[in-house]
Amino acid sequence: MLHYPQIDPIALQIGPVAIHWYGLMYLVGFALVWVLGRWRINRGYTDLSLRDLEDVIFYCVLGVVIGGRLGYVLFYKPAEYLAHPLEIFYLWQGGMSFHGGLVGVIIVLLLFARKRNKSLLEVGDFVAPLIPLGLAAGRLGNFINGELWGRPTTLPWGMVFPHTGDGIARHPSQLYEMGLEGFALFALVWLFARKKRPVGQVSAVFLMGYGTFRFLAEFTREPDNYLGLLAGGLSMGQLLSLPMVLAGAIIFAWSVKKSSRELTR
């Protein structure tokens, strides 16, 4: 059994200004997107420019923060935030929904694609391989915050999180998700995108991969106490991930069919 290392959530304090690890992890995530995006542009994986990459990152920051926060508010704690609406802006306390952030990113990328006379899937195929390492950084932020801990376990790496107040060893599910949704998904999508693929397939692999990894990781994650397990004994995260897998499969099948038609012309 392991004990949570009691990491101070504040990385740096300058007078009244506190810089939290959680926020820093988001900065690390977007920095990784910038580095990987430059690499793909410089090697000709897209006709987007470095200026386009900067615009994409700016739009995605807005999409992730606004969509992620509103998604958390609407999907997980609508009653609580309705009673205390100002707490919606307390981002340093954690509370972001990946699925809400994804919706926000899709919306801003759609606007960006229209300005560049491209399809959403073309832009999505460029952005998808850049995202997973940023997700890994976000999950590390969850671990540092001591939030989103796992279900009880007797495994030797079970960890006691002080915030639970029960002294029970639990799965370090934040680290599982960092490994699956972050590193494993990065390897899957990055390697798949190394070859030229029909439009939409890279985006589809990302959607199916994330949805599958998140669905599996949720079996080790403690359900939110204000929601519990929902339909079919599944968590909210699992229910939100299933449409991602389905959407990815539909997009992939459509892309294969479309590319086959173009080859036979």
TrEMBL record:
Name of the gene this protein is made from: lgt
Binding site for a 1,2-diacyl-sn-glycero-3-phospho-(1'-sn-glycerol): R139
Membrane topology designation: Multi-pass membrane protein
Record key words, sorted: Cell membrane, Lipoprotein, Membrane, Transferase, Transmembrane, Transmembrane helix
Predominant localisation class: membrane
GO cellular component: plasma membrane
Example GO BP: lipoprotein biosynthetic process
Family in the record: Belongs to the Lgt family.
Transmembrane segment boundaries: 19-36, 56-76, 88-112, 199-217, 229-256
Localisation: Cell membrane
Name assigned to this protein: Phosphatidylglycerol--prolipoprotein diacylglyceryl transferase
PANTHER family (alphabetical): PHOSPHATIDYLGLYCEROL--PROLIPOPROTEIN DIACYLGLYCERYL TRANSFERASE, PROLIPOPROTEIN DIACYLGLYCERYL TRANSFERASE
UniProt source species: Pollutimonas nitritireducens
Cleavable signal peptide: none
Function noted in UniProt: Catalyzes the transfer of the diacylglyceryl group from phosphatidylglycerol to the sulfhydryl group of the N-terminal cysteine of a prolipoprotein, the first step in the formation of mature lipoproteins.
UniProt keyword Cell membrane, yes or no: yes
